[in-house]
Structure formats: structure tokens, C-alpha cells
Amino acid sequence: MSEHDHGRRAFLKGAAAGAGAVAGLVPEALAQTQSHDQHTDAPATTAHSGGAGHGAFLNDDEAATVAAIAERIMPGAPGKPGATDAGVLNYIDLALAGAYADLQDFYRRGLAALDAFCGKAHNARFTALDAARQDAVITALEQGKATEFTWPLAQAFFNTVRRHTMEGMFADPVYGGNKDFAGWRLVGFPGAHPVFTPADMQSKDAFAGGVLIGLQAQAPTQRT
């Protein structure tokens, strides 16, 4: 992993290090969908969460590009999960098929513009570029210097995918990302626990007892 990767990971980890910040990454629209699902017979947001990582909205080419962008935004390293390990692609795909359906055209146009820019600048699609050139493309997006973008603008596209990557890394696994609590383990967030002792609540030390529990594990297994 390059020094650039280390710096990016450190920044994103710091942005989600506090328990409140991690909990705050649960997007409101998805939280409302989950709340509705728990009280109706409608399919849960995670209906496809056990699948191959996409297929709810994104096609194969789009999914490969989104996965590659997310991995460069939050790259993995030995012993340190990245976007691929945490199932960020699955999260984004499910969100675009549901609570973020209003962003479907935004994503499709943004991905098409991205490949047009890569074709012009590097004579290849984004997924065919090596990590260094992918990082250069992402930097151009972030700085608004990538051509071929009209709507969405390059910076708007980058900021949206980065935000969704963060959500997929650190939101509750019930929304389709944070696979095996990868993001929570990365920042030392203990998750939800049925019982915290008074000493646990008053301690300034990181909670070390029990296992991580997400919303899905706490939901009733049967509706009555």
C-alpha cells in the first residue's frame, strides 16, 4: 500500500472514529426504510444482501467501476479491510435500487462521463487503469478538473460516491455494507449491546466485552 493510500485510509478512519459519527453514517432515507420494513410485510432493504454484490440496480460494467472507485477511496491492506472487503458495492447497489433511487440517473451519467474522460486521458476504461492512474483520475474528479462531465459535475459525482463509500464502510450491516462488521472493527466501534453495565457506561476506555451486534441481529426473526 502506498503512502497516498495510508493517508486516505487514516483520514476516512478519523472521520468515522467516534461512536456517534459511526452511528450517524446510517443514512436517514435507509433508516426510514428499515423502520417501515420492521412494521409491515414489505421486503427488507437487505433483500439481496446475500447475493453477489450487485444486480439490484447496477449492471456488471457499472458495478465493476463503482467497486474500483470505492476501493481506491478506501483501499484495503493486509489485516485492514477496505471497501471491497466491507461489501460497499452491495450497499450502493441496494441503496440505488431503493432509498437512493432518485440518484440512478446521476450514477449512470456520472459513470458514463468517467469512462469518457478515462478514454480521452488514458485510452482505457477506469477499471483497466492501474492504481496510480486510477488515483490520478479520482484526484481530477475531486478537484473538478475532469473533462467530459456536464451533469453531474465531476466534483459532485466524486463527493457522492465518497459519501456512499463511507456509508457502506461504517453504517450498520443491515443496510448491505460493513460486511462482518469490517468497518466497525477497523475503528474500534463496539456496536450495539443488550446490556452495558454502569461501569461500562462511565468508562473512558474502549468497550472490550461481548460481540458486535447490528440492527439485523436485534430484529425479530418472525413477524406476528
Structure commentary:
The protein is an all-alpha fold and 224 residues long. It has one domain. 52% of the residues lie in helices and 0% in strands. The chain contains eleven helices and no strands. It has helices spanning 3-15, 19-24, 28-37, 60-73, 88-97, 104-122, 131-142, 154-170, 182-187, 198-202, 215-218. Helix 4 (60-73) packs across helix 5 (88-97) and helix 7 (131-142) crosses helix 8 (154-170). The chain is elongated. The N and C termini lie far apart (50 Å). Residues 35-52 have low confidence and may be disordered.
N-to-C span: 50 Å
Overall tally of structural domains:
1
Binned, the helix content reads: 40-55%
**Shape category:** elongated
Main β-sheet: number of strands, strand sense, barrel status?
none
Strand content: under 5%
Segments where pLDDT lies below 50 for 5+ residues?
Answer: 35-52
Protein structure class: mainly alpha
Order of helices and strands: HHHHHHHHHHH
Mean pLDDT over all positions: 80
What is the helix tally? 11
Strand elements, count: 0
